[in-house]
UniProtKB/TrEMBL annotation:
An annotated Gene Ontology molecular function: heparin binding
Protein purpose: Secretory protein that plays a role in various cellular processes. Acts as a chemorepellent acting on gonadotropin-releasing hormone (GnRH) expressing neurons regulating their migration to the hypothalamus. Also promotes neuron migration, growth and survival as well as neurite outgrowth and is involved in the development of the olfactory system. May also act through the regulation of growth factors activity and downstream signaling. Also regulates extracellular matrix assembly and cell adhesiveness.
Localization: Secreted
Key words of the record: Glycoprotein, Neurogenesis, Repeat, Secreted, Signal
The keyword Secreted is assigned to this record: yes
TM segment ranges: none
Organism: Chaetops frenatus (Rufous rock-jumper)
A Pfam family the protein falls into: NDNF_N
Positions of the Fibronectin type-III domain: 176-313, 434-542
Residues of the signal peptide: 1-23
GO biological process terms on file: nervous system development
GO CC term, one of those recorded: extracellular region
Protein name: Protein NDNF
Length: 556
């Protein structure tokens, strides 16, 4: 690049660089040449690179200046400058110096001419000025050689920006192009979902394999650039991967990040103290439904079109939407002594409400967790009296007044199906559920295993009850699925008749001796078996012990 350089009144360091630029071609001795070369290298960082995005760090209230020179001899030389604030609003301006008509650039000895040029302020003019945090692009055209000065200032706090200068406006763009209408449209709002659509970027049609859309969802505000979004997330205490442009790799995730990969979409959820920030890149699809949002919550949505080769991006005009309020859950009436089986679909219905009108002072609630994870919350006349996560068989004995209204709210804490059996009754009313032992575990004895038999044991109670033993042959790769899908409320009616081993009655008034064993024979060698024990109380409602998998010996 051949530079034209001029004398004019600027800060000392830029003046020195400008002087050097002019005098570098003048005849010099070897020592003078070395001095000028070293000086040029020292001030070289002040020259803004052409065709490259430059990151500039700004200190509060300290202006920073960069310059560039248009090529000499070009007619109507075009150029453009794009500045992207990455945090707070900044001030920036472009100044231009043009040589006076009919004046030649002075030499080192032209001190008189230099003093005269210092008195020509009309030749230094501001051609652009901006203050704010939006991404701004200035496009200019110069008909003769000129030196341009860019000045940046942050008055709020230390920050950083990116600057892109190019004098080649014909060979393509660093940044992906936005459509004529860059707005994001909200086309659907639910209790936990928002559906968005936006017009395609022209860059998608030209470079489909290197372009993708990335969506940012948060509860604070919209971001005007990807750079600003990344800075805000980092400042909230979450360390981001290098870019949102999905060079996001799974191994770069931090402990407070969750990655979800489904249907070729990659989601990164940042669990920051200021709220959840969700990032989703969905390729070149321009319609997306954001799932798993909270009801009655305002969210802000930003879409960025990202060039995967350069990591450069452009931001659509952000939008926001408020999810619908959670509908009032249907309330089911509980009747004295009646058992209700509640099934919660974790994906569709996370809440279930039961109401009980007391007719006595003492009330007894019984919960038998069948599957999944459920939290119970009980209120009496609007005031909380119990709240905890259910496990196994749980009893609540509450004391109030006749005609008190109890509301039982059940909430699934996972996305898979959960279920529970519930009974409410006066305190004196006998529970339909059987008396349970201290543990519902089944124990097997390794030393008593043979190729054809297995011996198991379990705890009983002080109340005479019926116990039924079932066994089922399974493959090794089925063990985890069988144990996870086990329903502790299901009875033997769901089993094949061939699975039944025996039923027997058993009890012991001494809890220390309430243990029974059973040897199951007629098994195959080297085979996995799933064993279940069902306990039946006086009412006939079964309670299933925790399933046990045992493998018979291969050789005996």
């Amino acid at each position: 690049l051949k530079m034209s350089c001029f004398w004019f009144y600027l800060p000392l360091q830029l003046l020195t660089a400008t002087w050097l630029c002019h005098s570098i071609n003048a005849p010099t001795t070897s020592s003078q040449q070395n001095f000028k070369t070293n000086l040029f290298n020292f001030y070289h960082p002040l020259i803004l690179a052409d065709g490259k995005e430059t990151t500039i760090h700004l200190l509060k209230d300290i202006p920073k200046r960069y310059y560039f020179v248009l090529e000499e001899g070009r007619v109507l030389a075009p150029f453009s400058i794009t500045v992207t604030p990455c945090d707070v609003p900044i001030e920036w301006s472009i100044l231009v110096y043009k040589s006076p008509p009919g004046k030649a650039a002075p030499g080192d000895h032209d001190t008189h001419e230099f003093s005269k040029s210092q008195k020509t302020p009309s030749m230094v003019s501001t051609i652009f000025n901006y203050k704010g945090n939006s991404v701004e692009t200035y496009m200019g055209m110069s008909s003769h050689s000129a030196l341009y000065l860019l000045e940046f200032l942050s008055t709020e706090r230390d920050t950083h920006i990116t600057v892109y200068l190019t004098t080649d406006t014909t060979s393509g763009h660093l940044y992906p192009e936005l459509p004529m209408d860059p707005r994001i449209d909200v086309i659907g709002i639910g209790h936990t979902t928002v559906t968005l659509t936006w017009k395609h970027s022209p860059s998608v049609l030209q470079h489909r394999e290197n372009i993708q859309y990335c969506l940012l969802v948060n509860e604070k505000h919209n971001y005007k650039s990807l750079c600003a979004a990344e800075t805000a997330i980092r400042s909230s205490g979450v360390k981001l991967p290098p870019t949102l442009a999905l060079s996001l790799s799974p191994y770069l995730l931090e402990p407070q990040q969750v990655m979800i990969l489904s249907n070729s979409e990659l989601s990164i959820i940042n669990k920051a103290s200021s709220g959840e920030v969700r990032q989703v890149c969905m390729g070149t699809k321009n319609t997306y439904t954001v799932p798993s949002l909270s009801p009655s919550t305002q969210y802000y949505f930003d879409v960025f079109i990202v060039n995967l080769l350069t990591n450069a991006s452009a931001a659509y005009t952000g939008t926001f939407a408020r999810t619908l309020e959670e509908p009032e859950p249907k309330v089911t009436e509980l009747k004295d002594g009646k058992v209700i089986h509640v099934v919660l679909d974790g994906k569709r219905q996370k809440f279930y409400s039961l109401r009980y009108q007391a007719r006595h002072k003492k009330i007894h609630f019984t919960f038998q967790l069948c599957r999944g994870q459920i939290r119970v919350h009980i209120t009496r006349n609007g005031k909380t009296v119990a709240s905890e996560k259910l496990s196994g068989l749980r009893y609540f004995s509450l004391k109030g007044k006749p005609l008190d209204t109890y509301l039982v709210q059940l909430r699934s804490t996972e996305e898979s199906n959960s279920s529970v059996k519930v009974q409410a009754s006066p305190h004196f009313h006998k529970s339909l559920f059987p008396l349970l032992p201290e543990s519902l575990k089944i124990k097997s004895f390794s030393k008593l295993r043979t190729c054809r038999s297995v011996t198991i044991a379990w705890l009983g109670t002080q109340e005479e009850s019926k116990y039924c033993v079932y066994r089922k042959r399974i493959e090794e790769d089925q063990i985890w699925r069988e144990l996870q899908s086990a329903d502790s409320c299901s009875g033997p009616e769901s089993r094949h008749k061939s699975d039944k081993v025996l039923c027997k009655y058993f009890y012991d008034l001494n809890p220390q001796r309430a243990v029974t064993t059973e040897t199951v024979k007629g098994l195959e060698a080297g085979t996995f078996y799933l064993f279940d024990v069902y306990l039946f109380g006086p009412s006939g409602i079964p309670v299933r012990y925790h399933s046990k998998v045992v493998k018979t010996r291969k050789k005996c």
